[in-house]
Task: inverse folding
């Protein structure tokens, strides 16, 4: 698991899953997103439904919020995308919000 320790909480209203990425930790941002999605979906991280490749390039995601060349963090910006019906929002601050699909 590359030293990844989930730091996620679930709120009740609206159903929103929260996780945080530590840019100084061993995991890449895309790895943290994958683990957060698996936790939110209640599946193993190796489950075929947990993949970013059909939606966003994991390497591009990692590079988007990587620290600047002088080492300063990139704290601005947000990227949103959908994975298996889950709305994922990744912030430059490292916050990851996942909204599961609504059930009718």
Result:
């Amino acid at each position: 698991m590359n030293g990844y320790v989930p730091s996620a909480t679930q709120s009740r209203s609206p159903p929103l899953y929260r996780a945080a990425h530590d840019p100084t930790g061993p995991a890449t941002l895309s790895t943290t997103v994958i683990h957060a999605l698996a936790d939110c979906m209640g599946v193993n991280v190796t489950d075929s439904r947990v993949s970013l490749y059909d939606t966003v390039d994991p390497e591009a995601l990692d590079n988007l919020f990587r620290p600047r060349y002088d080492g300063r963090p990139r704290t601005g910006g947000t990227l949103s995308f959908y994975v298996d019906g889950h709305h994922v929002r990744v912030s430059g601050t490292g916050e990851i919000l996942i909204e599961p699909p609504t059930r009718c």
